[in-house]
Fold this sequence. Notes:
Elements: H1 2-20, E1 30-35, E2 41-51, E3 54-61, E4 67-68, E5 78-79, H2 82-86, E6 97-103, E7 107-114, E8 121-127, E9 134-140
Antiparallel strand pairs: 1-2, 1-9, 2-3, 3-4, 5-6, 6-7, 7-8, 8-9
Amino acid sequence: xxxxxxxxxxxxxxxxxxxxxxxxxxxxxxxxxxxxxxxxxxxxxxxxxxxxxxxxxxxxxxxxxxxxxxxxxxxxxxxxxxxxxxxxxxxxxxxxxxxxxxxxxxxxxxxxxxxxxxxxxxxxxxxxxxxxxxxxxxxxxx
Length: 142
């Protein structure tokens, strides 16, 4: 019985370590173009900014001015725990990828990376106001 408990504990610890090994950093701040369902760029852009560890989101359409798209009040982006962040990935990707996210009540900004090939991965914005949450595919511009 004790071996079973130890095995379960170790597998949970390993799962948690793998799920939370990836973190968003200043290097992930930048401009992201929203992709359509055919993965083609649209005129919509996100700009995710990290000011001393505090994330904020801005958006624009075409060449318009950047506007804050973070909600007012208690809507700061906070780090998403590993197990919850994994639920943002499709079930088929959960074993092969790690994911790190920050979120507020409206959306999550996430980076995902292939465990076997860390140069493979990307970013996604999750619309959390949809039920279930809906991915918004994005590609980094700069």
